Amino acid sequence: MNPARRDPRALILIGVGVVWLIAQSGFVPGAAASGLGFYWPLLIIGLGVDLLGWKRPWRVPYTAIAAALVLLGVALFPTPNAVGVPTRFSEPVGAATAATVDLALGDAVTNVTSVADSASLLTADTQGWRHAVFDVAHTNPERIRVSPEAGGRAPVLTFRPNRWRIGLDTAVPLTLAVDMGSGRADLDLRDVTLSALTVEGGSGDLKAVLPAAAARYRVGIHGGSGASDVRIAPGAAVDLVLNAGSGRTGVTFGEFGSARVTVRSGSGPVVIDVPSEAAVRLLVTSDGSGPLRLGRFLKRQAGSGETGLWASGPAAAATPSIDITVERAGSGPITVR
Length: 337
Hints:
Elements: H1 3-6, H2 8-24, H3 30-39, H4 41-52, H5 62-76, E1 87-92, E2 99-104, E3 109-114, E4 120-127, E5 132-137, E6 142-148, E7 163-168, E8 174-179, E9 185-188, E10 194-200, E11 206-210, E12 217-222, E13 228-232, E14 237-243, E15 249-253, E16 258-264, E17 270-273, E18 280-284, E19 292-294, E20 299-304, E21 307-311, H6 314-318, E22 322-328, E23 334-336
Parallel strand pairs: 2-6, 2-8, 3-7, 3-9, 8-10, 9-11, 10-12, 11-13, 12-14, 13-15, 14-16, 15-17, 16-22, 17-23, 18-22, 19-23
Antiparallel strand pairs: 1-4, 4-7, 5-6, 18-21, 20-21
Helix pairs in contact: 3-5, 4-5
């Protein structure tokens, strides 16, 4: 038998790798995960002592002793600060009749939804090694900015990412700006009174659900390398500008809505899904190197090649409910289906 297979250090390293993967996947409680992140250098020390060939007490490898000390430290001396102390913030509605909210996400994994407390304009529950900074200006409209603190370095072997949970008021009209970073973001805005939304893409993925507001609102998606998936509620009236990047950009429209869409594509694919009953008009003024893929319901009305005018019918060409203009086509495919 191969002697390496009988070396208990190999089994220890395998076990450490398994525990590490489980911790990274989120199944280990926060305090235990932070303890693993703090005490893991003991395993390196134990392995080094074993390699020096020092006499082993009770014939037990020093790596095994180090593993036991790591588990003992996690159990008896947890270090929750290794993943950050939770920070909670709440800004009351007060006399605000409108508000501008800027979210600079950085590397935080972020969930944005409607606030449960009707007396709060914005609530935040953040956790991680990098603290969030809250700046409030009591102007008209009120301005709130949430951003990561400047500087700082992530702890070695951080098992938990920075996590933000943001709640927004549902009654006060909001102008929301989201600056994506490397963390993914999930924006559930279906119950928010949205005046405008701007997203600056990064390397993190974006998922957004937009509301069916009483008034028409503006949305600008400036894509990065991360994927963007935007879903618009049935009945919404939206002016949407898509500046796609290298990541996939997908937009799905709900039924009975109205939309004016401007597309400037990049190297990533752009996919627009429209309801089957919608009156759709598509005007392509720029012919890029990427292919144009259209559903059979769109019939050419004018033009040639991959530029021109398409519509789902004569009435749609005159009065469309979803009016799409491709101002700049890039190397990525554009699909309307």
